Amino acid sequence: MRRVTCSMGVSLDGYIVGPDGDFGWAAPGDEVFRFVTDEIRKVGVHLLGRRLYETMLYWETADQDPSLDDSMLEWAALWNALPKVVFSTTLPAVQGNARLASGSLAEEIERLRAEPGEDDIAIGGPTLAAEAAASGLIDEYRIRVHPVLVGGGIPFFPRSGRRVDLELVETRTFGSRVVWLRYRVTGPLDSQVA
Q: Would the CA dihedral through 157, 54, 4, 120 be positive or negative?
């Protein structure tokens, strides 16, 4: 069965976006960018919320940007070929290799898990990831911890009042001091945590 993964950059104090909406501190250096490119190769479909989808639209035409190096052009080619499902109640249509979700997040994941193949189902965007986490739909968390404290903003893990047990599967430390952590969910969501 296909795994559902959530992979994002996060500040050491747990935020994916700072209080001012900035996430420039999460821009990957060359080594991390290559790693993220290799990670996306293992994804069969990417589920996105509207804001992340709109942010990633840049890559639809990035191959026309003469300032991009080969690694960024490679990322653009991989990203554009990747099927995407966008969850939005406001977008009338989407571009590229994307479609608007026709069902709930749980229904889409159930349908995608039933499809043949071993490639991951990746979830991106804080709102969509929070919904998936609250519903117990995420199998693995892949976190790139950046050496910065931003002091507030949008948290990687929303306050759900639930406990989820995790097993550390793999780690990696990059020259930029970014630390990658891969955790597997080992048990169902427990009820309220004290």
A: negative
| pLDDT per position as a tens digit, 118-175 | 899 999 988 899 899 888 999 999 999 999 999 999 998 877 667 889 999 999 999 9
pLDDT tens digits for range 29-40: 999 999 999 999
- Terminal Cα distance for the chain, rounded: 33
Q: Does the global pTM surpass 0.90?
A: no
d(Cα 181, Cα 143) in Å, to the nearest integer?
Answer: 5
Residue 61 structure tokens: 């035409």
Q: Which secondary structure element, helix H or strand E, spans residue 78, and what is its range?
A: helix 70-81
How far is it, in rounded angstroms, from Cα 13 to Cα 35? 23
Q: In the numeric block, which tokens belong to residue 92? A: 């009338």
Rounded distance, CA 190 to CA 17, Å?
28
d(CA 129, CA 131): 5
Euclidean distance between CA atoms 60 and 80, whole angstroms = 6
CA distances from 47 to 86, 128, 179 (A): 6, 8, 24
Contact in structure between 112 and 121 (CB atoms under 8 Å): yes
Over the stretch 73-97, which tens digit does the pLDDT of each residue have?
A: 999 999 999 999 999 999 999 999 9
Are residues 12 and 146 in contact, defined by beta-carbon separation less than 8 angstroms?
yes
Instruction: Report the C-alpha gap between 112 and 124 in whole angstroms.
Output: 16
153 alpha carbon, distance to own chain's centre:
17
